Amino acid sequence: MDDSGTILARFLKLHLREIDLSLGRMERLLAALGHPEKSVPPVLHVAGTNGKGSTVAFLRAMLEAAGKSVHVYTSPHLVRFHERIRLAGTLVDEAALVDALMEAERVNDGAPITQFEITTAAAFLLFARHPADVLILEVGLGGRLDATNVVERPLASIITPVSVDHTKFLGDTVEEIAIEKAGILKKGVPAIVSQQLDSVRDVIEACAARVRAGPLHISMQDWQAREERGRLVFEDENGLLDIPPPRLPGRHQFENAGTAIAALRALPQLGITPAHIDAGVQNADWPARLQRITRGKLLDMLPPESELWLDGGHNPAGARVVAETMGDLEERVARPLVLISGILNTKDSDGFFEPFRGLAAAVHTVPIVMSDAGLSPEDVAVSAENAGLPARAHKSLESALRSIGVEHGELAPRVLIAGSLYLAGEVLDKNGTPPA
């Protein structure tokens, strides 16, 4: 029998374009499979540009703290495809994944379909056949025409911060992109909206009114999450919570945790209490989102006592929140910040480096070995230099790490690897610390 990697490689040949947003192919295959999407547990559907994964992590942790069994669907993966499908708290095993992929392949019978669509159909098969209390379903790209947008009536629709990304597929302006994200809103389904630009919030509210979604729960209008004295304070119509700060680092995680809290407090039928929220905020885990690497082969290549941080942020908005966190760390414990970056050719590489101006001491650029769409290290170095940052191109991640060790000698720098989820996956794989 083929393994999952062999099957996934075959799927890439089923459609000429890797990304081709449409629901028609997905609806055809799901109908042929007997509509598994109609038999999955109640769904929390999550769209947005930034913060989706962290919000999913908080939702899962809070629900599991309440004793709920939770399915989770996310993308992309970092090291192994299995990370995308979590069945009642556990990553899907190889045998179950292969069975579902092969069934979807057999029923599709060679018809045009994208890899994301056919693997999402296989995920629906798994979610329908394994019992759970809730399915957290993360949008792959956009929302309106995303392969996940086939669930007719989710428990709630959640939209995290929207910014400019994937303009080739979603539109040239943040307002056009917001229309695509708001495409997950459904008639009569509660909608939870994170803090947004005013123009984005206006678009989402207009889309919600058009489809009669709601009630709406909008950040800074119906609820708010903020940091006070190092703690997370959340307020909505149900009252105030004062709980410990999120386990995930960064000021932006207060808003992401708040989005998850707002969603679960809008769904009293789930029975989530303040104690469950408290535990979930403190226990949530999400790899490659400002993750501190505390052991492993790559860390050992740096000078003793160095810090190694990893983030999958790949657009200017993501870079801003990461740079903000690095700035906060610098205020507490001063160290030279060294940035290692690889970036895809579909991203705004110049915009990515702007938030690090005056913060990073140096940039080392590396290739993206897990994708054919990576910019050359030389081109990425030019983008860093355009932002006023001294940059040096390398042929490999290991070369960049060795160079930092030589250049800083006995100093212990703070090294941040960021710019692509593909690069983040390479780091976790080579470091020997893949997601579990």
TrEMBL record:
SUPFAM superfamilies: MurD-like peptide ligases, catalytic domain (SSF53623), MurD-like peptide ligases, peptide-binding domain (SSF53244). It catalyses: (6S)-5,6,7,8-tetrahydrofolyl-(gamma-L-Glu)(n) + L-glutamate + ATP = (6S)-5,6,7,8-tetrahydrofolyl-(gamma-L-Glu)(n+1) + ADP + phosphate + H(+). One of its GO terms (cellular component) is cytoplasm. It comes from the Bacteria. Residues 46-263 form the Mur ligase central domain. One of its GO terms (biological process) is tetrahydrofolate biosynthetic process. Transmembrane segments: none annotated. GO terms for molecular function: ATP binding; dihydrofolate synthase activity; metal ion binding; tetrahydrofolylpolyglutamate synthase activity. Gene3D superfamilies: Mur ligase, C-terminal domain, Mur-like, catalytic domain. Its EC number is 6.3.2.17. It holds the Pfam family Mur_ligase_M. Keywords: ATP-binding, Ligase, Magnesium, Metal-binding, Nucleotide-binding. InterPro entries: Folylpolyglutamate_synth, Folylpolyglutamate_synth_CS, Mur-like_cat_sf, Mur_ligase_C_dom_sf, Mur_ligase_cen. Its cofactor is Mg(2+). It is an enzyme of class 6 (ligase). The keyword rRNA processing does not apply. PANTHER family: DIHYDROFOLATE SYNTHETASE-RELATED, FOLYLPOLYGLUTAMATE SYNTHASE-RELATED. Belongs to the folylpolyglutamate synthase family. This is tetrahydrofolate synthase.
